[in-house]
Design a protein that fits this description.
3 domains, 10 helices, Arc Repressor Mutant, subunit A, Tetracycline Repressor, domain 2, mainly alpha
Length: 238
């Protein structure tokens, strides 16, 4: 029973991807799954229910943010976000290599504009991602690792970069928009540090002066010590 349902779901993804929702027929999906159309209707009742079931089955696998909540107080935020970003881009690259999966996602977003019930499911996927990432930022604010910000806005900015990049790379050829670890690192650098040049405050400058003076004092003392040691060695020779 389970195998039959999965065969139909897999076939639906393939047919929806190649023909679009409007062009896909339950007959063709049944043929692709090697089952009768009667079996398809008995399992899923309609083409619309089938599409919703495909999306529901995959809604949780779309999210890759779960592990972000399992962080310790001293976590390196820039490193964590960089790892997360690279995993997201890897998943997207794998999807693009699997053209069926990639085209299916494009079809879903297109259908979501016309079908409120699908838009609601899609929205829940992105909402889950944003909520989890918001929780991560809020945790790091409590831990004193980042300044007070609007956690949801930060999460939306992060997720939007990768979502928008995926769509652009689906439209343009790969050489027009590269997709590698360096791109992710550049984005995380801008995301975590901003684009404005930060001028050093008077306190910071004062601390740097004191630190420099201490280093110079230590250097002079080392030189004096070396000189004394040399004198001791000379006296010992005599």
């Amino acid at each position: 029973m389970k195998d039959t349902e999965q065969k139909i779901l897999d076939a639906a993804v393939k047919v929806f991807s190649s023909d679009g929702y409007a062009g896909a027929t339950t007959r063709k999906i049944a043929q692709e799954a090697n089952v009768t159309e009667v079996t398809l209707f008995r399992k899923f009742q309609s083409k619309e229910n089938l599409l919703k079931e495909v999306l529901i089955k995959n809604r949780y696998s779309i999210s890759t943010l779960n592990k972000l909540l399992n962080v310790n107080k001293n976590a390196d935020i820039e490193r964590d976000l960089c790892i997360l970003g690279k995993e997201i881009t890897k998943d997207m690259q794998d999807e693009k290599k699997n053209s069926i999966s990639y085209m299916f996602m494009f079809m879903l977003f297109e259908e979501g504009r016309r079908r409120p019930e699908l838009a609601e499911i899609l929205e829940s996927v992105f909402k889950t991602n944003i909520e989890r990432l918001s929780e991560y930022f809020e945790l790091q604010m409590k831990n004193g690792k980042i300044r007070n910000i609007n956690a949801q806005s930060a999460a939306l900015t992060f997720v939007s970069y990768f979502s928008c990049s995926a769509f652009l790379r689906g439209i343009f050829v790969d050489y027009a928009l590269s997709y590698n670890d360096k791109d992710v690192e550049n984005f995380i650098d801008i995301f975590t540090k901003g684009i404005l040049k930060v001028e050093k405050t008077e306190n910071v400058l004062e601390k740097e002066k004191k630190l420099q003076k201490l280093k110079e004092d230590i250097s002079r003392k080392h030189e004096a010590l070396n000189s004394l040691e040399e004198q001791v060695r000379e006296l010992e020779k005599e």
